[in-house]
Every structure is written in structure tokens, then in C-alpha cells.
Amino acid sequence: MKRIREKWQGLKLNIKFTVIIIAFVIVPIVFFSMYLFYSMEESAVREKRSSMEYSMESSYTRILKNVDSINMSTQFFLSDAFLTDCLGSIKNGQPMSTEELREFYNVNIASLERMVNSNPYLYQIRVYADSNSLQEMMPILYKRERMERLDWAQDTDIYGWKYDYTDMIFDSYVMDQNKKIMSLVTPIEDFENGDLGVLEVAMSMDTMFPELYEDRPGRWSCFADDGGERHYGTEKDNQDSYIEYILKNTVSGGKEESHTYYTEIDGEPFVVGFLPVKELSGSLIYVDSIASEIGRIHNMRAFFILIMVGILMCLIVLINFVVKSLLSQFYSILFSIREVQKGDLGVVIEGCGTDEMGELGTQINKMLLRIRQLMEDNINRERLVKNSEIKALQNQINTHFIYNVLESIKMMAEIDEKYEISDAVTSLGKLLRYSMRWVSGNVTVEEEIDYIKNYLALINLRFDYEIYLSLNISDIIYKQEIPKMSLQPIVENAIYHGIEEMAEDTSIYVKGFVNGDDCIIEITDAGKGMSEKEVSELYKKISGEIEAGGGSGNGIGLKNVQDRIKMSFGERYGIEIASKLGCYTKIMVRIPLRKKEGL
Length: 599
What we know:
By secondary structure, this protein is an alpha+beta fold. The chain has helices spanning 2-10, 13-78, 81-91, 98-117, 144-147, 205-208, 239-251, 291-326, 328-341, 356-415, 419-436, 445-459, 475-478, 488-499, 532-543, 556-569; strands at residues 124-129, 141-142, 160-165, 181-190, 194-204, 219-225, 230-231, 259-265, 268-277, 282-289, 443-444, 467-473, 481-482, 506-515, 518-525, 574-580, 584-592. The protein has a five-stranded mixed beta sheet. Strands 7-6-10-9-8 form a five-stranded antiparallel beta sheet, with helices on both faces. Strands 12-14-15-17-16 form a five-stranded mixed beta sheet.
């Protein structure tokens, strides 16, 4: 991600604009096209499923009609008392006379044959007597051995629905080798004689299931009975594996009611229909490939993508040209800035217009003019600084002269054993050395405290009473930096405005501690204090709300300290005041805590 961000930042502006514009154009089109083609695929699947559901409904209606026809024919034969009596006589070994046989054939068998012929949906209705010695009356009555030539006669349970077999009741003649039939096989019984024979009501498979025999590319059907047998009308590639997959995903998923769904088998899209037919103890499975419809949509999508790529390439060239034209003034300004970077400050941007880029060029021209003026001013300022440094060097020479004179006076006082004078001169020398030393940055709190000690040592020479300095400062506070001469003016204010009028021994307390990320230095005197009004007025002078004059007690010293601290550390730092009339005055200095190694 970081590498991509770096590459993006390194691109030229016109390329970035081109990419952004293309993204805003292409992204909505991509999402719209994805939704469009997805909707087209969904619509094709819905249409195919709707067509299949209609076919399934029609098939189920036709199947019910055929099943009713078979059941009615079965009941008609089973209810024929004359047929049942005849079969009972045959089973009991009571032969019928020639007259009886002729009457049975001309009346009963002819009637049954007419009933069969009147139903064009039926293939045949056959009665197999429980005897192999009777006189057969075709096409209705047959010997038992005829039935044994059929495939289903070898089943353990010969009764019920039988599917997909060939009519082979005659040894030398097959009715139709390509004709597959199905039948409902029912026992013929009566109360006295038990089993009298078997009734076979047959119908062509293509009559019951015409969709199995449709020869349509990509579409085929299968009837799966409850015994696990699958019956096909036309042979298709991989149909067994497909049906195995469909049945597994349909039945194991608990979907045993009629329904359709979309699936993919070996990467090929299909719409599958599942139609349970409880009347036939099986299920019809419809499989319809939708590969051609989906493929057509995919081809449309590929063509659309190809067209969009061509349009995109043209847009990139066109947008890049337009963006470059719009940014021509910007590139002119950028070239001028690069010349300035090389050191040529005399560059002037020509032909600035009135638009935003033109205004930018005008402002850059003004900026360059101002830079040239500032450089000239800076050169003059440097001359003044050099002169100031020379004067400071001369003052430093004079300062060394003063230090040497003070050192000589100290030695003379010590020779005469005037040690108080010697100590006073020592303190004065340190005081002068600190105040006259040139420092470019801040000083440490420890250096400022040492200066205050020397200052108080000299102050105590003036008074008949003693001012003591009480310190409670942690080591980390001593190492913090503070503007030079920031604490001494506060101590001086405490002496002249709080202590001097009382004229008695007293102390000035200096406490330093850490408060979060800040350092607090408190300077407290036990002087006369201030009223709330005086404190409020002093705050206004320090903040600059009212002007501080040049006289004593006007707060100008504290204002200078406040201004220098804020300039060094920021607006949240500075001084705060707390005072009580007749008791004390406390000045709190807040500076940032800056940790150093070893602390």
C-alpha cells in the first residue's frame, strides 16, 4: 500500500487528473454493466424455469389422465363376473363346452376387446390365466406361459407398475422391438378360488412420458422409479452421472416436492425440474441446458468490454490532452519556480491571466519581488549585526577590565582582613558576570537561582534586617531551561513591594515541582500582600489590557517576564498570581517539562 501511495505521489498532475476522471467515468459504468448482465442472466434463468414449470404442470395433468384411464380399465376387467367365473372354471379343471367357449368369445371377449380398442391411449389389456392348457382368445386371454416370457414376470413381486419393457409374449415375433411399454399388473382373485390369473393393462412409454422421447438439443428427461431404476427415452452423454448428481442434491436437500432450480454440472449451466409422481411411485426429472442462452449473454458482455476498452483508450488520450491544455499555465509557473530554485531570483512569470492560475502567477511575481527586497534588507541587517558584534567585543574587553579591578579590590580587602567586603565584592563580580554575559539562548533554572543568591547577598548589605532564601527544588527542575533574568525580577518585586516596608527578618520561598507535562516554580514572600482589586489590576497590566508605565510598582517587570516566557514556550505558559492582603504574595511560573538524558 505504501509503495502504491509513493508511486501515485510521484505521478505528474495531468496523469493524476486523467486517472481520477477516468475512474469517475468507468467505475459507475462497470458496476452498471455488471448489474445489467447479471440481470440478463437471471432473466434468462427465470424464463427457462417458467417454461419448464409450465411443461411440468402439463405433463402431470396428462399423466394423471393416463393413470386414471389405466385404473378405470383395470377396475372394469376386475369387475367382469363372467370373466372371473371362466377363470375359476379353468383353475378348477372344469372344461367349457364348445358352445360355451363360442359364446364367451363372441360376447365377453369381443366386448372387452371393443373397450380396449375404444381407448387410443392404451397399448393392450391382457389376462393371463393360471393355466397353460386353456384355449387362448387373443388379444385378451392368454396362457400363463405367455406372461413368463416378459421381463417383469421374473421379478420377486410381479404386481404393481412395470416400466420400460418390450412386448415378447410370442417366441417368433416381437411386436415392436423399439416400442417400450409400461403396465399396471394386478392379480385376479375371488373369494372361493383365490388367485385366478394376472391382469396386465399396458400403455406405451412414449404415451405416458412423451418428453422422454423428445429429441431436442440440450434437453432431455428421465423417469426414476422408487426401485432405483432410471428410464430414458433417448440416449444422452453423461446422463446417468447427471441424474445421480441431481437426485442426490434434490432428495438429500429435503426438496421432495415439485420444483425447479438452476445449477451447474461439470461447469455447464442447467435448469432442472423435479416432479414427484406418487401415482406411479416415481419422479420425473427434466434437464434443460441453458448454456446457449448464458453463452450468448457472455458474448454480449465480452463485446461490450471490448467496445468499452476502445472508448476508454480514446477517452484517456482526449482527457490527457484537455488536462494538459488546462494546466499549461501551471507548468509555466512550475518551470519558473524551478529556475528560482536554481538561484535565479530575477525570474518574472509572463502572460498571467485573470483565472486562478493567472492569479497564482501574479502572486508569485509579487513574492519574488518581496524576496529580493528582503534579501537586500537582510544584507543591510547583517552589516549592522557585524558592527554590533564588534561593539560587543569591545564591551567584553571593558568587562574583563572591570572583573580584574574587582578582583584586585577583593585581594586588598582580604589582605586587610575585611572579609565582609571581600564576600560582597565576590557576589558583585558574579552578579556582573552573569548579567553582562552574552547568551544567545535560555539558561538553566540552576544558573538563575545562583544569580538570585548573589543578588540577595548584596541586598542584605543595605538593610538592618536579613532576607533569607528558602529553596525546595527537585533536580529535574534545576536542569530545565528558562529565559535569562526571568526569576530575578520576581524576587526584586517581592523585596521592594512586599518586604521592604515591613523592615524585619523574613524569607523568600522558592519551590519547584513537576505538574504533568509542565514545571511549576513558585516564588512566595511573606510581605504585605495585595487586595483582590490590586491583583486584578496587575493581571491586566501583565496581559497588556492596560498600559504599564515606567514607574515603580507598575508591573512592567512581570509583563516582560510573561512576554519572554510566552515567546519562548507558547501561549499556554507564563505566570500566575495569588495574594492575600497582609499575608503573602505568590508568583507561579509555568514552563514546559523537557526531559534530558540522565534525568
